[in-house]
Amino acid sequence: MVRAPATIRTALLAGFMVIFAVWLASTFYFTERLADSQARSAEIQSRFARGQELLVELCGPSGRRLPMETGTHFSLADME
Q1: C-alpha distances in angstroms, 1 versus 4, 6, 35, 42?
Q2: Closest C-alpha to 72, from 61, 58, 62, 60
Q3: 75 contacts 58 by C-beta, under 8 angstroms
Q4: Is residue 1 helix, strand or coil?
Q5: What ranges do the domains of the chain cover?
Q6: Among candidates 38, 78, 39, 44, which has minimal Cα distance to 58?
Q7: CB within 8 Å of 71: residues ≥ 6 apart
Q8: What share of the chain is helix, strand, coil (3-state, %, to 5)?
Q9: Using CA atoms, how far apart are residues 48 and 44, in angstroms rounded to an integer?
Q10: What is the CA radius of gyration of the chain?
Q11: Mean pLDDT, 10 residues at a time, the chain of 80 residues
């Protein structure tokens, strides 16, 4: 039986360790990016829902414009 030299075993072990490290690092990176994108998505959905609520307050559920007092103005600052 022929035994593989120690250098080949060492090289194979080092190669597998490098592949495992790259796999582990990429998993961590993509998990972080997924969490960030989910947080951004939740924030966007929250702003959209708030905008819809403001539209209902302004126009009513039927979508028709409600009578407003003269001189009443809305701005983006009112949304926050």
Answers
A1: 10, 15, 53, 62
A2: 58
A3: no
A4: coil
A5: 25-59
A6: 78
A7: none
A8: 70, 0, 30
A9: 6
A10: 29
A11: 77 96 97 96 94 83 61 55
